[in-house]
Amino acid sequence: MKQLMRAFLVGALCLLSGQAMAQGLTLSGVVTDQSTGEPLPAVNIFVPTLNRGAVTDVDGNYSLVLPAGTHELVISSVGYKRTRQNVTLSRNMTLNIEMEPDVVGLDQVVVVGFGEVSRRDVTGSISSVTTDDIAYQPVNTVENAIQGKIAGVFIQQDNGKLGQGMTVRIRGSSSVTAGNQPLYVIDGVPAISDDFSTNGAVTNPLADLNFNDVESIQILKDASAAAIYGSRAANGVVLITTKKGRAGRTQFTYNFQTGFSEPTNKMEFMNATEYRDYFRQAAINSENYYGDGCSVVPNDPNCYDYIGDVEFYFGYMAQGTDFENAEVNSNWQDEAFQDAGMFSHDLSAMGGNEQTRFYASGHFSDQDGILIRNRYQRISGRLNVDHKASERIDLGVSVNSSRTLNQRLAADNAFSTPLQLVAQSPLSPIYIPGTDELNPNTIYYNGLFDRDFASYKTKTFRTLANAYGTFRFSPSLMLRGDLGADIMTVNDEEFYGPETADNWSNNVGGIGFNTWQQSVTYTASTYLNWQGSLARDHRVDATVGTSMQYSDYNYADVFGRNFTAAGLRNLISAAEILGGGSNGSEYAFTSYFARANYNYKEKYLATISGRVDASSRFGADNRYGFFPAASFGWVITEEDFSASIREQLSYAKMRVSYGLTGNAEIGNFPYLALWGGNSYASLPGQSPTQTANPDLKWEQTSQFNVGMDYGLFNNRVTGEFDWYVKKTEDLLLNVNVPATTGFLSAVKNVGSLENKGWELVINTFNLTGDFKWNSSFNISSNKNKITNIDGQVITGGFINRAIEGQPIGVFYGKEYAGVDETNGDALYYVYAADGTRTTTASWSAATDRVIGDPNPDYVGGFTNAFSYKGFDLSVLFQFVQGNDRYFGGMGRFAVANGDFFDNQTRDQLNSWTPTNTNTNVPEARLYGGNGTRHSSRYIMDGSYVRLKNVTLSYNVPRTLLQGTGMSKVRLYTTGINLLTWTDYKGWDPEVDTDFIGGNIGLGNDFYSAPQAKTITFGVEIGF
Predict the structure, then answer these.
(1) Would you say residue 526 lies in a domain?
(2) Are 78 and 151 members of one domain?
(3) Number of independent structural domains in the chain
(4) 327 and 274 within one domain
């Protein structure tokens, strides 16, 4: 049998191999821009009949060896119209080529799963971002760099801490309790995107990657585009392709930038005088309202001396200073922020010849956060090599290694997190009067002790690598194999000196923690691709293959206390080891996939794909899932009947698609009954940790999409429009189970949800010539609704809920009705069965109902790009409209009309008094809880428009660089988050507090850091 198979393969290879290449003639020349005459690098000159081609170098030169005869050349480059040209060779020949810019970008190469297609052949919904759109931005991660640039993609940085989590939703949330983040694939390798945080504040693993190495980003949004990734694609797919080398002399590029950051906003708090007077009045109001009885029965334990209490605390806060004359007026908010500088260096080289091409880069950046103690350093190196071993065999490798150091902060819900300093009284001195020692006698723990006597460092080492090989049986048939690995090791080192004892009850002589985590993902794929013609005008591009993924995770930690000296912070110096632990897990996927693209006369297009996935996360009976998809395209402007309107309608392509994708982003082995080790009276034992569900199966999302790509008025106006419906069935849901089982919840297939929406992109070429002005506008809307979760109500956040018939994460609670003008009471609404409502001062008597929605109605961006004689200006406005925010964390303490001793925002000075009855702020009452419990009082409109990015650059003319050895000098300045227009009263509308975030806990603000406003100055040099 083996001999027969070997003979069959040898015969097939001989049949498909074609004729051997003969000695030929040289065709060479220069490719230039038709309008400017500038040479064009990276232009492909391809001879389809010979499957042979060349790529122009940095000076636009190409050289191609061909046999004598007549050949058809296909010349293509991103941003230029594809052309075909016949050439007859009888001797060596020079052919110079001019290329016409293509404003529609139909010949842009679009990376899809396991292959590439031309933009003109795309029938699914795919958005693209190139390196020119994102390079050298002063942000930590690629998601920041594309924010506001892509229709249908909502991106939000959870807060202003460096390296923290990002929320990315492609066409809405597809699951309630399973994963909602997209799948990231970097050079063919599914990237680790799990959270490795040990303090409850989600981090972002993609911040480890240097996005300046990125060549392009493709967002696969509909099922047709994403179904090739099957079970991984329900939340969309982000394909990241890094830069490759090209033939020609080696080109070096060095980029340096430096700058500074500051908060986008600061809030206004009461000064010492306002604080003192306000709380005195709050105490008087409480005595008047509640009465204390102390003057009647002085020894009554039930009486409360509000006025005496406030004066006692004033004395404690002031620490001997004269608070009557505001001797101390501390601005604790300023103490939370720091002067934040940054710089970065990038050096890259690319080049090669027809056989071997390479791209190599090195990166180092160091950025201070706007919050004290927050810092992020990254060093990385990349090497991409592509080698043509023979006319049939191509090999390549892509390796990126990085090391990041994140000086982290506590989660938002900790007094040591910097922004909780604003809770301190302005009467409290920051330092002990007359000394330079921090004041420990503040009303709350003084978080500045953590600034000076604690450290929290996260070191991440990551290697992302991929190796590939291709074998061409013939010009039409190619076999490719890929092996990839993503290895991430994370080490957390925490130390809290004895000075921070108030923050750690068991801190004796200092306490330290050390955590080690490692996640390793291995991938392998093999696929066969055939491109050819079945008959005249019938082109087919077919792919069939298989892939596997194995992931392994390990965790270990140890902690101890009583360190011998302040400078010795490693656990080896701890006198007492308090404990430790370890765990680990693994999972695997095996997949089979196929796809076929069909093109008839460049006007009728079709794509059919299917993928079968098997996952270790499901039992044997439900391990496999099948995810098919189909899409169709019709290029209307290729029809004869459109000739009469082509001056108005230059290009039009209709698209329609339908398909299934899956979701398996849950814990490992949820279908099994699991046991875990424990101890009882120092004896080893075991106990159940998970109940079994052998019937657990795939969560599936179907999606129907209708779209149109268009060009108007000779393509001066271009864009696309899409409308879609996504329906998720068999939700992988954490549901409540009877307590008699010994568990509180279990993962089951329960329920469904739906997303409906539309996306619009409009690109305009307003002015051409020496002064150019281009615009790009995108807007999208998505409506999410939970259609069935078996009547359950699932909680999250502070008052978030998942409720049938409502969008995910709605705010649910009491509706605030304002202030009783007669006495200053906070009022709430009571709803009757017929919908009529009355008011009550009793919070518990008020009706619970949906009082807000954290999901936006519209998101988008508006970019304008101007250029004139070497000067370039790009301006991006980003907007989010229609989403609510719950300011119920800090709001309930600092916007609380004197309920606690937290410093109050200045708007509370407008609280109700007998002479100020027309107000929405209840009467100030110390300890009164007058309107400070969870309610819609703290729900605010989170809509905003932000001047997201402004970049001004100047390209030094090449004539001035002659003889310097430099080919390019670009000077630039970039501003990020320069201006924000919003009615939100907190620091920043773009927040999600880090310790209770998730699918349901959306839109909460709890001392969450604002985004940073960053300005940088840079120089880019090519040589």
Answers:
(1) yes
(2) no
(3) 4
(4) yes
Nearest to 1019 by CA among 378, 259, 339: 259
Token look-up 């019709």 returns: 634
**Distant-in-sequence, close-in-space partners of 353: CB < 8 Å, separation ≥ 6:** 247
H or E element at residue 448: helix 448-453
At residue 889, the pLDDT reads 78
pLDDT digits over 357-370, tens only? 999 999 999 999 99
Long-range contacts of 645-649 (CB under 8 A, 24+ apart): 647/713, 647/714, 648/712, 648/713, 649/710, 649/711, 649/712
Q: How far apart are CA 605 and CA 598, in angstroms?
A: 6
Q: How far apart are CA 334 and CA 351, in angstroms?
A: 50
In this structure, the answer to whether residues 234 and 183 fall within a common structural domain is yes
> Which letter, b or e, does each residue of 624-647 get, where b requires 16 or more Cβ atoms within 10 Å of its Cβ?
bbebbbbbbbbbbbeeeebeeeee
- Please list, in sequence order, all residues whose beta carbon lies within 8 angstroms of the beta carbon of residue 567, skipping any fewer than 6 positions away: none
Contact between 527 and 596 under an 8 Å Cβ cutoff? The reply is no
The pair of three-digit structure tokens given for residue 58, joined into one six-digit string: 């940095």
Both 502 and 606 in one domain: the answer is: yes
CA dist 298 and 408 (Å) reads 51
952, 870 contact by CB (below 8 A):
no
Distance CA 884, CA 170 (A): 19
Q: pLDDT class for 505, splitting at 50, 70, 90? A: low
pTM of the model: 0.90
Residue 342 has pLDDT above 90, yes or no: yes
d(CA 888, CA 985): 12
Residue 647 has pLDDT above 90, yes or no: no
Length of the chain: 1023
Of all helices (H) and strands (E), which one includes residue 598?
strand 574-600
Structural domain boundaries, residue 238: 126-139+141-244
- Cα dihedral 976, 978, 981, 985, rounded to 10, equals 90
- Would you give the DSSP letter of residue 1008? P
> Do 45 and 149 fall into the same domain?
no
Same domain, 19 and 160: no
Do the domain assignments include residue 201? Answer: yes
Place of tokens 């518990």: 844
**Is the domain of 492 the same as that of 366?**
no
Please identify, among 616, 647, 665, the residue that sits at the C-terminal boundary of a domain. 616
The CATH number of the domain holding residue 76 is: 2.60.40.1120
- Residue 205, φ and ψ in degrees, nearest 5: -60, -25
Q: Are 335 and 407 in the same domain?
A: yes
Residue % of the chain over a pLDDT of 70: 95
DSSP 903: P
Q: Is residue 595 part of a domain?
A: yes
Which residue in this structure is represented by tokens 């997949």? 591
Among the listed residues 245, 301, 260, 307, the one whose alpha carbon sits nearest the alpha carbon of residue 281: 307
pLDDT tens figures, 652-664: 999 999 999 999 9
C-alpha closest to that of 854 among 722, 994, 997:
997
Of 244, 277, 306, the one marking the end of a domain is 244
Q: Does residue 149 lie in a domain region?
A: yes
93-94 and 25-33 strand pairing: parallel
pLDDT of residue 17: 38
Residue 19 has pLDDT above 80, yes or no: no
What are residue 624's DSSP bridge partners?
A: 614
